[in-house]
Amino acid sequence: MRRRIFINNLSEILSIISAMVGIVFLIWIIKDVVVFGIKSINLEFFLENPKPPGIEGGGLKNAIFGSIIIATIAVIIAFPIGLLGATYINEYRTKISGIIRFITDIMLSAPSIVIGAYVYALLVKPFKTFSAISGSIALSIIMIPIVLKAIDELLNLVPNITKEAAYALGAPKWMIITQIIWRYIRTGILTAFLIAFARIMGETAPLLFTSFNNMFFETDITKPMATLTVSIFNYAMSPYEEWHRLAWSASFLIVIVVLSVNIISKIIQSRGS
């Protein structure tokens, strides 16, 4: 008994120390991002494109717009596929349901750079051009298994008695799914969407292979388009102090967006429960 108590206390102490170390590093990183990034957050940052090297001023309007467009298209592609896929494997339970779950688990652990290389070989190389739509497809491939897995777990929580009562009343399958099952887990569906969206907002590697970058304001999704994450990657490695300033500001903006999305998802989840 003494040995078990000792091991329990030791494990608890090690867990607390590990958590504190992680919190210290997290606060350190966030502090640097806030201190260096907030200095350049102004209207110019949101309303102007980057200036040529050596010229002060400018902003990241092109990258902010590109990130919004690419992320929005990725959501439009991924969310219906994830929702319908999770519903299919949970409600119809065919022979391929287990295969889909297995592939989903593999995709959840797949490195994002591998997905970027795959989309590059599939869309960029054959058409001989980088494009925003290629970046959106790469991000949607990352997003689909997250949404599918989360909603699949949620669907397992729907009481069978609720569905059986609907069947007893003669309700068709599609009505049970849309009017009962989806409404029962609607809070969880929204939370899954927000978590997946926060996940893709910080991706850089797949966009380097697909949407690449653009120093100008671009609205054509079939052409290269700037994003915040790729701009941070490029500017952080540059020798220009002004570009370093923009990289810090872009990092601050992404941190605020991701933090806000996660807080909103937690609020929705707590209210829904």
Fold and architecture overview:
The protein has 273 residues and is mostly helical. It has two domains: 2-40; 43-272, Orthogonal Bundle (MetI-like fold), CATH 1.10.3720. Helices cover 76% and strands 0% of the residues. Helix 1 (2-37) crosses helix 12 (241-272), helix 9 runs antiparallel to helix 12 and helix 11 (228-236) packs antiparallel against helix 12 (241-272). The mean pLDDT is 90.
Overall body shape: globular
What structural class is derived from the secondary structure elements? mainly alpha
Gap between N and C termini: 38 Å
Q: How would you characterize the largest beta sheet?
A: none
- Counting H and I runs of at least 4 residues, what is the number of helices? 12
**SS elements, strand count:** 0
User: Can you tell me the CATH class of the largest domain?
Assistant: Mainly Alpha
The averaged pLDDT comes out at: 90
Low-confidence runs: none
Provide the helix percentage: over 70%
CATH topology of the largest domain: MetI-like fold
Beta strand %: under 5%
CATH superfamily of the largest domain, by name, is MetI-like
Report the C-alpha radius of gyration, rounded: 23 Å
Question: What is the second-level CATH architecture of the largest domain?
Answer: Orthogonal Bundle
Spell out the helices and strands N to C: HHHHHHHHHHHH
Number of domains: 2
Describe the structure concisely for a colleague.
The protein is built from 12 helices and no strands. With about 270 residues, the protein is mostly helical. The model has no long low-confidence stretch (mean pLDDT about 90).
